[in-house]
Specification:
InterPro entries: NAD(P)-bd_dom_sf (IPR036291), Sc_DH/Rdtase_CS (IPR020904), SDR_fam (IPR002347), SDR_family_member_7 (IPR053011). By secondary structure, this protein is an alpha/beta fold. It has helices spanning about 25-35, 60-85, 105-125, 170-185, 195-205, 210-225, and strands at about 40-45, 90-95, 135-140, 190. Helix 2 runs parallel beside helix 3 and helix 5 (about 195-205) crosses helix 6 (about 210-225). About 25% of the residues are buried.
Length: about 230
């Protein structure tokens, strides 16, 4: 049994609402006051989606972007200001394989993750004068978590009825371990997934015509299952 050497001074837990952007500067300052520095920021807040675009209220898309995208870059902005002063730090953003491909029933979620990919890949090019500030994008595939229970649906007031079986997904502990390995090694982008999802990522990257054909076939079946309540 490992005994932690951490003391109470080594731990600070703050409640944070990503959509309350006016609170992010104060939260950052609270952390700096307690620890004196921020070495790593892990952007891991967000919600997924399970609904067809034709059935979905536009308010849902606004809420997805507000939380997954704008909330993330708002917090990043305040922490990055500190890292630039120190000329050192790591910004780790949990994107998704949906940030590099498209999938049915997740148009808004995919859009928010594509936005994060574009933002952080662009931000990296603005930080060439700071070689010790790392921008790391983590792209997990299906992972065991509560993200499905909390997905956006056709409208903001509706929750999902059936979250389905998660036993086929990657265990949370393995995803965390691979994320830490990627962070320690300053990987610009890491795809963390089991097959067949990982194979689809490679198809999407290197053989997009085949990927589109495959996703159309898989998507048709997924939409039929969704409409049937599976």
């Amino acid at each position: 049994v490992e005994i932690s050497s951490l003391s109470e001074q080594d731990i600070l837990v703050l409640r944070l609402d990503l959509t309350d952007r006016s609170s992010h500067e104060a939260a950052t300052n609270s952390v700096l006051k307690h620890f004196g520095k921020i070495d790593v920021l892990v952007n891991n807040g967000g919600r997924s989606q399970r609904s067809l675009f034709v059935d979905t209220n536009l308010d849902v898309y606004s809420a997805i972007m507000e939380l997954n995208y704008l909330g993330t870059i708002s917090l990043t902005k305040h922490v990055l200001n500190h890292m630039i002063q120190r000329k050192k730090g790591k910004i780790v953003t949990v994107s998704s394989v949906m940030g590099i491909m498209g999938a049915p029933l997740a148009t808004g979620y995919c859009a928010s993750k594509h936005a994060l990919q574009g933002f952080f890949n662009s931000l990296r090019t603005e930080l060439t004068d700071y070689p010790e500030i790392s921008i790391i994008n983590i792209c997990p595939g299906p992972v065991q978590s509560q993200i499905i229970q909390n997905v956006f649906t056709e409208n903001l007031a509706k929750s999902i009825e059936n979250s389905g079986d998660q036993s086929h997904k990657m265990p949370t502990s393995r995803c965390v371990r691979l994320t830490l390995v990627s962070t320690a090694n300053d990987l610009k982008e890491a795809w963390i997934s089991d097959h067949p999802y990982l194979a689809v990522c490679y198809l999407w990257q290197y053989m997009p015509t085949w990927a589109w054909w495959l996703m159309n076939r898989m998507g048709k079946r997924r939409i039929q299952n969704f409409k049937s309540g599976v």
